[in-house]
Recover the amino acids of this structure.
């Protein structure tokens, strides 16, 4: 049987080599994506290996990944789920458990966040019937303005839930101290910041609960996939419960009686001895991942350090090439103390008489260079959120600037030196076309 598997693995590698070889870059014709999957034959071998097991839910590859991912981060626990969005939902939902007693988040409680970013940081707050409190962001790093956090706090504040924007962090030292002083939870959305350091610590290791995404554009991929990480055993148990239907039992797939008391307990209004595998202590979900996805992640994790290194290198190339246009574009700046594993290269077009964001975005797209807005811009101006219950601190002036004037381009490891050179040259051509010479 193992001989047959080895033959299949060999053929998969041959297939990869014949089907996914590097294609020649042709400037102006080859599309330059903002991000994407970077992989080799090992990912394909792993996913076929998992398919041959035909263990179609969470299994041995998921167990390996969770252990190795925890080791990479230096956290005690990691739990895989089907997306970074689900990871955020699990993180916030876990904190609503009655098991947390006085620290439990209840309907109507407030959670501090920003309106500048992706909806899935905001959605779990609303889905758990909590009230978001919106704080503006800083220009340049596009993270929450820490100097106005005191103004955002009320007697109902129970958590602060923020994402690290495009790989750059907030002042995590300040935020962590702020949350601890007030006894509120810190949920750290690190979906765009895997590998980012802040004063010697990895992003995603400072919050009470942290989340990651393994969607194809992110630092590493499983296709779809995410993870929730934490250090407290109780939080792990709660996230696991909400991920796995809300059940009280923590047995893995295919396991029975891990607690040794499967038929000897009394739960709620159930009869004594009711099967613990079918006791539900929370209103949960089924957000597990398949082992085939986890198998891809195991191969990707081995490449993660090289991915992080390449993102930083690509960012530095763009910064060097575009710095001469700083009079017209606000280029990104790392938060003091942060060493970002950049997800993208944000550019804020300054007010000028020569061009708008729309002009330069249209030009770059015409040259086959992908651009993106900073996700939802000001989420409060999106149709879905116009009438939500909320509190807003100030006028969110910078968030509106981001919505109106910011775009970003890619730095992901799949970009070659030729692509980066072409990207920089395209900016030069655009400025010349506008009669701007710097």
């Amino acid at each position: 049987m193992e001989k047959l598997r080895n033959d299949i693995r060999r053929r998969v590698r041959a297939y990869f080599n014949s089907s996914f070889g590097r294609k020649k870059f042709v400037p102006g014709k080859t599309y330059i994506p903002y991000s994407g999957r970077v992989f080799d034959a090992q990912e394909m071998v792993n996913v076929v290996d998992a398919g041959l097991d035909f263990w179609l839910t969470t299994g041995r590859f998921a167990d390996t990944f969770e252990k190795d991912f925890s080791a990479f981060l230096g956290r005690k626990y990691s739990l895989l789920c089907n997306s970074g969005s689900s990871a955020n939902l699990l993180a916030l939902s876990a904190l609503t458990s009655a098991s947390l007693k006085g620290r439990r988040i209840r309907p109507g409680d407030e959670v501090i966040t920003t309106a500048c970013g992706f909806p899935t940081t905001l959605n779990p707050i609303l889905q758990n019937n909590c009230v978001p409190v919106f704080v503006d962001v800083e220009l340049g790093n596009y993270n929450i303005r820490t100097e106005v956090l005191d103004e955002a706090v009320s007697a109902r504040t129970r958590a602060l839930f923020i994402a690290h924007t495009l790989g750059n962090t907030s002042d995590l030292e300040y935020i962590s101290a702020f949350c601890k002083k007030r006894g509120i939870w810190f949920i750290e959305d690190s979906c765009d910041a895997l590998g980012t350091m802040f004063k010697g610590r990895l992003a995603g290791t400072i919050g009470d609960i942290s989340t990651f995404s393994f969607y194809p554009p992110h630092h590493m991929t499983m296709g779809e996939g995410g993870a929730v990480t934490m250090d407290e055993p109780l939080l792990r148990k709660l996230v696991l419960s909400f991920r796995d239907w809300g059940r009280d039992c923590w047995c893995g797939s295919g396991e029975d009686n891990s607690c040794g008391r499967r038929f000897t307990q009394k739960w709620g209004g159930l009869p004594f001895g009711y099967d613990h595998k079918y006791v539900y202590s929370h209103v949960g979900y089924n957000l597990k991942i398949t082992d085939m996805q986890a198998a891809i992640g195991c191969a990707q994790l081995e490449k993660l350090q090289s991915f992080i290194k390449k993102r930083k290198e690509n960012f530095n190339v763009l910064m060097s090439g575009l710095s001469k246009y700083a009079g017209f574009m606000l280029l990104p700046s790392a938060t003091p103390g942060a060493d970002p594993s950049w997800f993208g290269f944000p550019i804020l077009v300054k007010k000028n008489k020569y061009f708008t964001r729309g002009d330069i975005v249209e030009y770059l797209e015409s040259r086959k260079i992908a651009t993106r807005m900073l996700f939802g811009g000001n989420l409060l101006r999106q149709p879905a959120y116009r009438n939500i219950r909320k509190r807003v601190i100030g006028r969110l002036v910078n968030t509106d600037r981001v919505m109106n004037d910011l775009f970003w381009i890619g730095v992901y490891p799949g970009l070659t030196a030729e692509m980066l050179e072409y990207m920089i040259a395209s900016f030069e051509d655009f400025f010349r076309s506008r009669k701007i010479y710097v």
Summary: Residues 150 and 178 are 9 Å apart (CA to CA).
